[in-house]
């Protein structure tokens, strides 16, 4: 009976260690996701700003291709 109790205590100790390891991995992945979302937002805003500037430049007659091309 005592050996079964010791086995169960050992299993619980390993499970607690595994849960802590998994918790740290999930926390690290969440930090990476947060960073990637922040970078994505920055790129999105940069692309929108560049698209607005490109649209303004395209409407400028100086940037039009001459008819003979």
From TrEMBL:
Cross-referenced Pfam families: SlyX (PF04102)
Record-linked InterPro entries: SlyX
Top-level lineage group: Bacteria
Parts forming coiled coils: none
Name the record gives this protein: SlyX protein
Protein's organism: Cupriavidus plantarum
């Amino acid at each position: 009976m005592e050996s079964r109790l010791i086995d169960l205590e050992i299993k619980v100790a390993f499970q607690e260690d595994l849960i802590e390891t998994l918790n740290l991995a999930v926390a690290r992945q969440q930090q990476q996701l947060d960073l990637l979302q922040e970078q994505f937002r920055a790129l999105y805003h940069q692309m929108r700003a560049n698209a607005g500037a490109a649209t303004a430049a395209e409407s400028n007659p100086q940037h039009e291709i001459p008819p003979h091309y």
